[in-house]
Amino acid sequence: MVSECFGARSISKQVCSDSQETKWELALKQQQKEAHSLCHHAIHKLIPMAGAYQQSMLEAVSQASSIYAPDEAEAICHAGNKVLDEISNHISAILYNARKTREANRKANKMEDSHMKAVIYHNSVLPYIETLRFHIDSLNAIIA
Questions:
Q1: Which residue has the higher pLDDT, 64 or 3?
Q2: Using CB atoms within 10 A of its CB, is residue 59 exposed (0-12), middle (13-18) or buried (19+)?
Q3: Looking at residue 127, which CATH number applies to its domain?
Q4: How far apart are CA 42 and CA 70, in angstroms?
Q5: Is residue 98 part of a domain?
Q6: What residues make up the domain containing 73?
Q7: Which superkingdom, per the lineage (predicted)?
Q8: How many CB atoms lie within 10 A of CB 107?
Q9: What is this structure's pTM?
Q10: What is the pLDDT of residues 79-92, one digit of tens each?
């Protein structure tokens, strides 16, 4: 009877361990998909939209001097240049954090143990994703 209890206990620990490992793997895969889609959306959709918006802003700012009075044109140019700088900064930050996210993701994927992979992913990939989200949201707010 005692050996049955110990045997059952070791089996339940193994089942619990397998169950926990499966949860880590599922959570990790979900986070990896999210990171991939976030980077893909930012690089292939948002940045081209921001570039087009930036181009139209440049044209509007350059034409301001011919349409408005000198004081108004200067104010418009100053405000436009400020927005253009913000857009450029967000684009640079998005590209940097997307690259760092991919690099950290590759390092995490080299780990065999799913728990260690999840920990490394949480500590090294998620901070870049959060920063990436901030810049994506900020850029969306400007160009939307």
A1: 64
A2: exposed
A3: 1.20.120.1560
A4: 38
A5: yes
A6: 24-143
A7: Bacteria
A8: 14
A9: 0.79
A10: 999 999 999 999 99
